[in-house]
Amino acid sequence: MRSVREILRLRLEMNLSSREVARSCGVHHRTVCEYDKRIREAGLTWDGIKEMDDEALRKMARSNLEQSESDRHLPEMGYIAKELKRPHVTRRTLWLEYKETHPDGYEYSQFCWHVNKALSDPELEMHIEYKAGERMFTDYAGDTMPITDPSTGEIRQAYIFVSCLGASSYIYTEASENMQEANWIDSHVRALEFYAGAPEIIVPDNTKTAVKTPDRYEPDINPLFHDMAAHYGCAVIPARVSKPKDKARVEKSVQAVETMILGPLRNRVFFSIHDLNAALWEQLERVNTRKMRRLDASRRMLYEEIEKPALTPLPMDRYIFREWAKLKVGYNYHIWFGKHYYSVPYRYAGREVDMRASSTLVEVFCDNRRIASHLRSLRVGGYTTVSEHMPPSHRDYNDKWPPERLVSWAGKVGPHTRDLVEMILGKAVHPQQKYNSCLGIIRLESRYGKERLEMACARAVRCNATSYQSVKSILDKGLEKQPIRKMPEYVPAAHENIRGRGYYN
Questions:
Q1: What's the DSSP call for residue 201?
Q2: Which domain holds residue 33?
Q3: Distance of alpha carbon 169 from alpha carbon 86, whole angstroms
Q4: Confidence of residue 172 (pLDDT cuts 50, 70, 90)
Q5: Predicted structure pTM score
Q6: Distances 161 to 142, 158, 244 between C-alpha atoms, Å
Q7: Beta-strand (E) ranges in 113-176?
């Protein structure tokens, strides 16, 4: 309206020509003529116009335009709003239908302008000042970077992790093979080490590696991610679903990474994640030290000045990724994890417990209290049992039937039976696990006789068949009296394609 008021002042008060006013105000002379025509039709002078407020002047200046537009038929906005919610319906489709009914109606751009004006509910934006050391925002960039296998030429995509601090917008980024839990958590650990401190709050997106079940009021945080944050004294408050403004800082940082880091690296070929990260961090240094356009300071300067002193010092021990699982304790008071059995106190048999495992340690928790811990074993099907976890009756059973007594009892049958029992007990980490097997073999004497059992055990020792079922099968099928056949040596027949020993001499 200032431009309109100036046009009318020069034309009415200064009595300049339309072309002179147009040159002075930087508009077309026909625009000056149009405004002059409307003012004269309204019978107004400059003295009356200069006392008018902007709203009254706007109505007066556009009166003829509004009159001409009122002759056009406006689309029914209620119908438009309803139809736009249906799948595959666009504004252009509705405009084409509108023009068929009203050929003299609005063209497409004006149609869209009226529709947007009627349907839009402008959302006010609030500028948020983040307290130094309060928040760290994290996300993955939408773009990926190609990694080329140098031996096969196969190309795979690397995913770009991005984090930034709230007060300084100080950025950290790195590439990883995938977006699984281990890489997601390790990226956060390296980001905190890059910042040399931990914030009060970590604000991630609602990815499954961060939030198991999104909810606006009580989101279910992934236990592994929560465990990492707790190690560094951080709280996890994820952004709301479909609310990118909750993490606007990292959205801007992602944009900066994509345009100022990934863009300049687009033509380079990388053969490993290590090479890609080295290039990313080289470009990242330039981004963090570059002065921001609206501030006379760089991200690094703001970080050093206000953010770094406010961060919480990192603990002495680096966080180690641990796997969590909810397991049920068997009635043999063991849990099954990683193809191995681990004992827990017998009173927890049949209950659900939480298991936390690292590469070296397995810990068991119940009601947020650790009830057992074991060194991790890679022995498939084996048992790791602590005697204190066993009920008193089971410990008494071990005392009542020591391995030496079983061996002595087997020796009364014969030396081969004794040797087989010793082999079975020697293969067990805990001998009591094989007591029943040994007792079953010894008791076969009452059914088959001492002589047959001794012969069967001799055959089992030679065949390394160290189990009760193997010995019982030998006796049932009468194999104890049959000699063990040796496999004949294979002598290849003469053939023209076989060169023979003489060829190599």
A1: E
A2: 2-70
A3: 41
A4: very high
A5: 0.53
A6: 10, 10, 17
A7: 135-148, 155-165, 171-176
Q: How many whole angstroms separate alpha carbon 493 and alpha carbon 171?
A: 73
**Local confidence band at 286 (pLDDT 50, 70, 90 cut-offs):** very high
Q: Is residue 488 in a domain? A: no
Query: What separation in angstroms does the CA of 232 have from each of 235, 385, 431?
Result: 9, 33, 44
From residue 196, give the alpha-carbon distance in Å to each of 303, 315, 330. Answer: 11, 10, 45
Considering the domain architecture, whether residues 200 and 305 belong to the same structural domain is answered as yes
Could you give the CA distance from residue 266 to residue 251 in angstroms, rounded to a whole number?
Answer: 21
291-332 pLDDT, tens digit per residue, is 988 788 999 999 999 999 999 999 999 998 888 889 999 888
Kindly list the distances between the CA atom of residue 251 and the CA atoms of 68, 142, 162, 326, 351, in Å, as whole numbers in the listed order.
45, 10, 9, 35, 44
- How high is the pLDDT of residue 66? 44
Query: How much is the mean pLDDT over the chain?
Result: 84
DSSP 289-330: HSBPTTSSSBHHHHIIIIIGGGSBPPPSSPP---EEEEEE--
Residue 450 lies in a domain: yes
CA dihedral defined by 467, 470, 473, 475, rounded to 10 degrees? -80
Tokens 């100036």: give the residue. Answer: 6
Full 3-state SS string of 12-80: HHCCCCHHHHHHHHCCCHHHHHHHHHHHHHHCCCHHHHCCCCHHHHHHHHCHHHHHHHHCCCCCCHHHH
Q: What is the CATH number of the domain that holds 233?
A: 3.30.420.10
Does residue 129 fall inside a structural domain?
no
- 391, two tokens: 């009920």
b/e map of 154-164 (b: 16 or more CB within 10 Å)? eeeebbbbbbb
In a domain, 487, yes or no: no
